[in-house]
Automatic annotation (TrEMBL):
Transmembrane feature ranges: none
Native organism: Nocardioides zhouii
Protein name: Glyoxalase
Domain of life according to the entry: Bacteria
Record-annotated VOC domain positions: 4-126
Length: 127
């Protein structure tokens, strides 16, 4: 079966900060950094490219029309717990901490984090 998503272009305001925040999170979720580029590739072939564009205007606001958040996966609850423990020092703020790991419902095991530019990522255990 072909991959469902070919690639993502992520426009960021501060490339250096975003590279550290996103690079850490993507590595946790199994993405590999491509040499010499601001891009990461997943084992299924999907890739994410990061840049700051002169065409950008205004700040990112996930609550306006557009993509609200990305959801990625890790294989185990142990990985999710370790990711949660490290997330703050890596620039990600935990959302819904009082309901971890079931903020999405009792049958759903996930961590919700937001970075310094307001991008939200939901990290789900398994498929």
């Amino acid at each position: 079966m072909p991959r469902a998503l070919h690639h993502l272009d992520l426009w960021v305001d501060d490339v250096a900060t975003a590279e550290g925040e996103w690079g850490w999170l993507l590595a946790w979720c199994g993405w590999q950094r491509e040499d010499g580029m601001l891009s990461w590739v997943h084992a299924d072939g999907t890739y994410l490219f990061m840049e700051h564009s002169s065409d950008q205007h205004g700040e990112h606001d996930r609550l306006r029309p557009g993509i609200n958040h990305l959801a990625m996966t890790v294989e185990t609850r142990d990985e999710l717990d370790r990711m949660r423990a490290e997330s703050t020092e890596r620039g990600w703020h935990e959302m819904y901490a009082d309901r971890y790991p079931h903020a999405g419902g009792e049958e759903h095991v996930a961590l919700y984090v937001e970075n310094s530019e307001g991008f939200e990522v939901e990290v789900v255990v398994g498929d």
